[in-house]
Structures are given as C-alpha cells and as structure tokens.
Amino acid sequence: MMMGNFEIAVKNVGQKDGSDVVLVYSVPSKGIEGTPIKQLVEFERVNVGAKESKNVKFVLNACKALSIVDTTGYTLLPAGYRGFTR
C-alpha cells in the first residue's frame, strides 16, 4: 500500500478564536472521459486561536485517494499525472 503524507499550516488572522474545515481534493489526469474536475479525498476540522497558526497533517492512501469510479461502478487507478489541491 502506497502512503503519502503532507502538512499544511492554517493561520487565523482574526481577533477571535475560530475553526475551519481543511479540504483536500485529488485532481485526475487530463483527458480521461467522465472524471470529475476534482474529488474530495480527505478533510479535517481545525480549531485555531486568535492570531495563531496550527499545522494539520494528512496521511493518504495513494491508491484510494487517486482512484476514480467509472460509469459501471468499478474503481480504477488510471495512469498519468495527478495532483492534490485544497
């Protein structure tokens, strides 16, 4: 199983404590018919105090995060470049 991990910093620039949901999307290769523009693969709510920042760590199963479901319901892992976005 291929695992990938990354961290992202979330900063609260406001005067009050707050929370937000960090969303991670995968972006499929271009030219694969019927694929979404992007798909949600992970999320996490983070509470950040006023004027503070917090690192949020994600650990993704690459095969699961980068796969797509075709029109017949089969899960596929197409070849080609894919990326992640927030």
TrEMBL record:
Limits of the Fibronectin type III-like domain:
20-86
UniProt GO MF annotations: alpha-L-arabinofuranosidase activity; xylan 1,4-beta-xylosidase activity
Q: Do you know which InterPro entries this protein is assigned to?
A: BXL, Fn3-like, Ig-like_fold
A single BP term in Gene Ontology: arabinan catabolic process
Where on the tree of life does the source sit, at the highest rank?
A: Eukaryota
| SMART domains assigned to the protein according to its UniProt record, in alphabetical order | Fn3_like (SM01217)
Task: Give the protein's recorded name.
Answer: Fibronectin type III-like domain-containing protein
Q: Which organism is it from?
A: Corchorus olitorius
